[in-house]
Amino acid sequence: MHIELVIAKLITVGLGLLITYQAYKGYSVHDSQPMLYVAIGFLFISVGSVIEGVLFDLVGLSIFLAGTIQTAIVACGMLVILYSLYGNIDTGTQEKEI
Fold first, then answer.
1. Which of 17, 36, 52, 84 is 20 to 30 A removed from 92 (C-alpha atoms)?
2. How far apart are CA 36 and CA 60, in angstroms?
3. What distance in Å separates the CA atoms of residue 13 and residue 45, rounded to the nearest whole number?
4. What are phi and psi of 61, to 5 degrees?
C-alpha cells in the first residue's frame, strides 16, 4: 500500500465529511430540505472516494468490479445533489402571488 495515496484518500474523506456536517447543520438550523439532500449526496461521494481501495485491497474484489461500485456510489451522490438543486422540494416558504 502506498502511504501517500492513503493520506490523500483520508484527507479527501475528511473534507467530504466536513462538507456533509456543515450541510446537515444548515438543514438543522434553517430547516432547509435541499441542504439535507446536499449532505446525503456528499456523504455518498465521500464514501465512494475510498470504497474502491477498500473493496480491492480488503475484500478482494477485482479492480474492475471495485471501480464499478465506486463509480456507481459517486454517481448516486451526484444525483442526490442534483436533485437538491433542481428537484421539486418543499422549502417551507410560500411563493407570493402577484
1. 17
2. 34
3. 9
4. -70, 160
Query: Grid cell 501517500 — which residue?
Result: 4
CA distances from 63 to 40, 47, 79 (A): 26, 17, 24
Cα distance between residue 11 and residue 98, in whole Å: 49
Q: Tell me the average confidence (pLDDT) per consecutive run of 10 residues in the chain, 98 residues long.
A: 87 96 96 95 95 91 95 97 88 58
With beta carbons less than 8 A apart as the criterion, state whether 44 and 79 touch. Answer: no
Distance separating alpha carbons of residues 28 and 22, to the nearest angstrom: 10
Cell 461500485 locates to 69
pLDDT of residue 87: 85
Report the candidate in 39, 33, 36 with the shortest Cα–Cα distance to residue 89: 33
Residue 84's pLDDT is 94
